[in-house]
Amino acid sequence: MGGDGKKWGVFLLPALATLSFVFIAPICILIVLSFYQMTGPAVVGDEASLSNYVQFFSDPFYLRILWNTFTLGGLVVLFCLIIGYPVSYFLARSNSRWRGFLLFLVVSPLLVSAVVRNIGWFPILSNSGLVNWLLLESSIISKPIPLISNFTGVIIGLVHALLPFMILTLTTVIQRIEPELEDAAASLGAGPVTVFTQVLLPLSIPGAIGGSLLVFTMAIAAFTTPVIMGGNRVLVMATYIGQQFRTVLDYAIGATAAAILLILVGLLTVVASKLGARKVEAM
Amino acid sequence: MGNVVLRAVLIGAFLFLLAPIAMVVVSSFNGVGVFAFPPQQFTTRWYREIDPGYYSALYVSLVVATVTSIIATIVSVPAALALARGGFPGRNLLSSLCLSPLMVPALVTGVALFQFSLLFWDVFKVTLGGTITGLVIGHLTFAIPFGVRAVLASHTRYDLSIEEAAESLGARPLQTFFQVTLPILKPGIVSGAVFSFLISLDEVPIALFMGGGSATTLPVKIFTAIEISFGGDILAVSSIIVAISVVAMLILDRFVGLERLFMSKQ
Most exposed: A51, A233, B81, B159, by fewest CB within 10 Å? Predict the structure, then answer.
């Protein structure tokens, strides 16, 4: 098979050469850079050490960023599960003639640019926007609540961006559970709530964990939405990295943060695929 | 009772999914400040005030997306065939290597490419950042893996005996490749290319760090404009993008199937 291997190797060469140039070399440079220190704006010294990493995992400032990042990911997953479950249940079980159209509606936001979708939230969530207008008109609140350009805004934006992925994953998970099991439980006298908590939920947990890991990973890796919806004020890993390279110009610590995010996301992706999550695309 | 609750949740969820997209279009005609609700005066003023820069950014986006998906297709089809058929050692490793960029956040790839282009200039005095070439280089990082994966997926159902039949009927290897292999793999190749094209049009972090000046893509142009000031013209541009997306969506749903595009088969 040696000769055969060489023949196929030639076909693989263009892709490998291109990826080495456009991807592997840059990532290696970034990782090397993460071991150096800044000596001036956009200038990096020439002594390698682990000090950036030590600083990142000991300085409360950076630990706070890590904490914010995990909190963000966790909350986004939670809301995606809460909204996604009933929708997926309907899509998986319904024979309605609307089913195909609704599935189309679930996926369709993914084809509209992320930047544009984020912009659409401003007329809805800003102080003079739709939600605050409704709440003020109905006298539930007396002054507008800030819903955008803060942490809340980032959560809303990311839940909106990632909900379709959660719904697609959960729908296939629920489809694999036989509806007869629910019918059997119901015929034995279980109410809808009991059927859900005792039958559907336990059976769908493995798939739901896979989907949740996927959404969590995409949430902490996202950059565009946290920047726009957070109004450049919310500090999570992604926004911090962006700042270091765009405005602060501390390339070295920015590279360290990027390397940490890279490892974190890589590990989570591997775990998610080991759990058998179906691969869904991130935008 | 349970049914009513389920229905209410469903309506709520779909309103949530579609609201921002609908609001982009509604607000772009709002004469009294684009964030104010309810809209009061109908105006087309924002559309007339669109900066010509957005049109040139759209042009840059289209050029980058087209060139990227063409190069990616040319490179990834043979690679996927080699990975699917070649019995060489280390095939699994090479396959994960080809798909590895998809596991890396685009932001990390973006900043890595940014550093790479600085170093490239230091060493070779060649500018990559802020050029169309740089943008294409950046977008190849995800376009090649998308292409490889799409072709690999469509190859799992491939029946090699069809090629043997063609050859036993006297077809030369190249003839077999162009008249048998490629047509059978076409759906996979097309969906890989379409997907790369769409992501390239939409992608921000890589294009932000590799672009600049005249090589600024449309989403990056909007992204940086919002950071400075947020006006009606941005909503007008955005609702034009929504209109184009809806048309593209309907076409894609007809020919590729939207659900299939976002869910790769195992």
Answer: B159
| pLDDT digits 0-9 by tens, A30-68 | 999 999 888 877 778 878 888 899 999 999 999 999 999
A261, part of any domain:
yes
Q: Are A237 and A154 in contact (CB under 8 A)?
A: no
| Closest chain B residue to the Cα of A163, Cα to Cα | B17
Any domain includes A120: yes
Residues B143, B69: Cα–Cα separation, whole Å: 6
Q: Is A282 part of any domain?
A: no
For chain A positions 102-121, those within 8 Å of chain B (CB to CB) are 102-121
Point out the residue among A25, A228, A265 whose CB comes nearest to the CB of B116. A25
Cα dihedral A194, A195, A199, A204, rounded to 10, equals -110
End-to-end CA distance of chain A: 40
Q: How many domains does chain A have?
A: 1
CATH of the domain at A132: 1.10.3720.10
Range of the domain at A67: 56-274
Across the interface, do B6 and A90 touch by the CB < 8 Å criterion?
yes
Both structure tokens of B17: 């999914």
**Does residue A209 fall inside a structural domain?**
yes
Q: Is the ipTM of this complex over 0.95?
A: no
Indicate the residue of B9, B138, B235 with minimum beta-carbon distance to A119: B235
Pairwise CB contact (< 8 Å): A265 & B24: no
